[in-house]
Write a structure and sequence with these properties.
The chain has 23 helices and 22 strands. It is an alpha+beta fold. The protein has a seven-stranded mixed beta sheet with strand order 10-22-21-20-11-18-19, with helices on both faces. A six-stranded antiparallel beta sheet has the order 2-1-3-9-4-7, with no helix packed on it.
């Protein structure tokens, strides 16, 4: 927007701050939303195909209930803990009978999943679990029936193994479904009905009946039924469900409002601009669905690790059996092999990475950071420099009154009051900024009549019986007037730093004063820049504005490097220039003309999803306009990377130590890992990994809380 071209045209609104053209029809966001995350079948592929959170939860609780008597009546557990299980007719058959139910009911998802992996020739975690519980089941029945004299009573271990694995999958499925669950909760915030304004008053209609162009009445405490623009009235809106920011924002005539947000204190009349699939929430839903479907390098690592572990476990089992058989102890060979196959199922390793990624995506979505591509989250921790687009990103993209200069004999307040009176009937952004500044100073505005727009020059209106003009240098030339030298010195300073200057001219040709209009810097931008620098990340800015304008903003914010007078098409060259220095770049733009730069950067972040939610080139979309949300990305990326490695080290360490010990490599020294100890270690490893990943929830990612 050029502040200098002060031509007053009718204000047009786009489709709301988060509007998006319908790419993939999603239906009305509210209707048909699942009741809760327990019903989500979140994995439509891979190891959880066809499984829901509720299924794992229900099987876990029943399995846990059945496991208690199995463990209590197990002779091995009694020996370990030093008690004698009660003896009565049939007591010995409690573990086999209940263990069989656990195997067939609780183990069913793993048996089916393992069979599918075997058919697909893609061995992974499900096959590992299926192998372990099948071996434990067979060995335990052999022992219970007294065949071969083996002491391989694994009923208690089978029960705990199935219970722990169901618990792990339940936790994982809940995490994977939480981002979608949070989205369903958002969608559920939409009202079912709206008050449509008609010639005869208002009528209550289903939200699905609204169409762009309709006028709706939103009362205090009510939610917006669709995206739109305020036509009449002013209210404080709670937009926290979209932006993650709890502070309310003022929305008045011409301002865009988003479906699902709440008018907290006053009623407003809103012109609908987007409904159904075109609303902000529908766009955000599509983004989160893309994030859930996207793969990442870490996910691929987990898949490869699962395949390796199957071959490792199978190979270790074969070697153990051969080695102990060659040593002449077939019973020991069977015992050690069964133990290896049962405990060589480190589900913790398979849970380590996917669980961290799932929780990270969910936490980001709750903070208004929509991760379209998980690779973007992984790369963010390695970023050396964040390159911000200026207009609409570090600044609001809207004019703001900066300075007032009055000619001799006229006061600054009088100049502003006159300018605001003349501009009061205009909807131009510059006019609204002048009126807003006058109201902020509590100035009394005289009544204006006969408002007339002068395209390309300014405006005029009658005030207190005289005609007052407000406009830029073109207006002075047309009127043939010259501003006083003292005033001209001030306005030249303003223009030198890139500000737009508007003069207030009386009907006798006297220049009463002038005001300067500049693109307003977001208050949050200063915090974002300084916080990034504290994290060791440089901050650069790119803009098409004149160098003096760019330098003024950069000096205000403390930015490290500035690229000014850059054409929109050349912004990606500046990204390449930074990359050419060996720097890894995150590009933050408003998503309108920054697509090439967003695509070229290691991480592309579209801020202010409202301008273009559908920016395909951005890996991340920030639902709000707060640049501090970039810090949330940095902190989350670094924290999730730490958790991944902590979990990998813990899970792999268990496997590296337990399998050789179970195989008996230190048997000559009298050190052998018993089946009971192996099972306890395995269970502990899985629980530790799951709980460690949950610690990510303690991160404060709300942009207003990031420091």
């Amino acid at each position: 927007m050029s502040l200098g071209n002060h031509s007053h045209h009718s204000h047009q609104t786009s489709g709301g701050p988060l509007a998006e053209p319908p790419e993939h029809p999603a239906g009305h966001a509210h209707h048909g939303a699942p009741a809760g995350d327990d019903d989500h079948a979140v994995h439509t592929h891979g190891q959880h195909a066809g499984h829901s959170t509720a299924m794992f939860k229900n099987r876990f609780w029943l399995t846990l209930a059945l496991s208690v008597p199995v463990v209590y009546f197990s002779p091995m557990m009694g020996h370990l803990l030093g008690y004698m299980p009660p003896e009565f007719p049939g007591a010995a058959w409690i573990p086999p009978v209940l263990g069989t139910v656990i195997f067939l009911y609780g183990g069913q998802p793993f048996l089916k999943g393992g069979l599918q992996e075997l058919k697909d020739r893609t061995p992974g975690m499900m096959l590992l679990i299926a192998m372990a519980i099948t071996v434990a089941f067979a060995a335990s029945w052999v022992t219970s029936l007294g065949i071969g004299g083996f002491d391989l009573d694994f009923w208690w271990e089978l029960a705990l193994l199935v219970a722990i694995m169901l618990l792990g999958h339940w936790i994982e499925m809940r995490a994977l479904g939480s981002a979608q669950g949070a989205l369903d909760a958002l969608a559920a915030l939409l009202p079912d009905e709206a008050e449509r304004i008609t010639d005869g008053g208002t009528e209550t209609v289903p939200v699905s009946d609204l169409a762009p162009g309709d006028l709706v009445l939103v009362r205090p405490g009510a939610r917006m039924p669709a995206d739109g623009a305020v036509l009449d009235g002013q209210a404080e809106f709670d937009e926290s469900m979209i932006t993650g920011e709890s502070k309310t924002v003022t929305r008045g005539p011409g301002d865009p409002v988003v479906a699902g947000t709440v008018a907290t204190d006053s009623s407003v009349r809103v012109r609908v601009t987007a409904v159904g699939d075109q609303t902000a929430l529908a766009g955000i839903q599509r983004l989160v669905e893309e994030a859930q479907a996207s793969s990442s390098r870490a996910q691929a690592l987990a898949d490869r690790a699962a395949a390796f572990l199957f071959y490792f476990a199978a190979g270790a089992g074969v070697l153990t059996f051969v080695a102990w058989t060659l040593l002449g102890s077939v019973p020991d060979a069977v015992t050690r092999t069964v133990t290896v196959l049962v405990i060589a199922c480190p589900h913790a390793l398979g849970l380590a990475i996917p669980l961290v990624i799932a929780i990270s995506t969910e936490q980001a979505a709750r903070a208004g950071v929509l991760i379209k591509n998980r690779m973007a989250l992984e790369r963010m921790r390695t970023i050396d420099v964040v390159l911000f687009d200026k207009t609409g990103t570090l600044t609001t993209g809207e004019p703001e009154l900066k300075d007032i200069a009055a000619a001799e004999g006229t006061g600054a307040d009088a100049v502003l009051a006159l300018a605001a009176a003349v501009e009061s009937d205009s909807e131009h952004p510059v006019a609204r900024a002048i009126v807003r500044a006058a109201r902020a100073r509590n100035l009394r505005l005289p009544a204006a009549t006969g408002f007339t727009a002068l395209p390309g020059r300014g405006v005029r209106a009658g005030v207190d019986g005289r005609t007052v003009h407000v406009g830029g240098p073109a207006l002075l030339r047309e009127l043939g007037v010259v501003e006083p030298e003292a005033l001209a010195a001030r306005t030249r300073e303003w223009m030198d730093r890139g500000a737009a200057v508007l003069h207030v001219v009386d009907d006798d040709g006297t220049v009463l004063g002038a005001v300067s209009m500049e693109d307003a810097v977001r208050p949050e931008s200063r915090q974002a820049v300084s916080a990034l620098q504290r994290r060791g990340i440089k901050v650069a800015m790119v803009t098409g504005d004149a160098r003096q304008v760019a330098q003024a903003v950069a000096a205000d914010l403390g930015i490290d490097e500035v690229f000014a007078e850059v054409l929109p098409a050349d912004k990606d060259k500046k990204v390449a220039e930074l990359q050419g220095r060996g720097l890894k770049v995150a590009m933050v733009g408003d998503g309108v003309n920054d697509s090439p730069a967003l695509a070229r950067a290691e991480v592309g972040i579209a801020i202010g999803a409202g301008t273009d939610v559908a920016v395909e080139s951005a890996g991340v979309v920030l639902a709000g306009n707060d640049p501090r949300a970039v810090l949330s990305m940095v902190d989350l990326s670094r924290a999730s990377y730490r958790k991944m490695w902590q979990n990998l080290v813990w899970a792999a360490g268990y496997n590296i130590l337990s399998v050789p010990l179970a195989a008996g490599v230190l048997a000559f020294a009298g050190v052998v890992l018993s089946p009971a100890a192996g099972a306890v270690l395995m269970s502990a490893s899985t629980v530790v990994v799951a709980l460690n990943a949950q610690l990510l929830r303690r991160l404060k990612l709300n942009p207003s809380e990031v420091r």
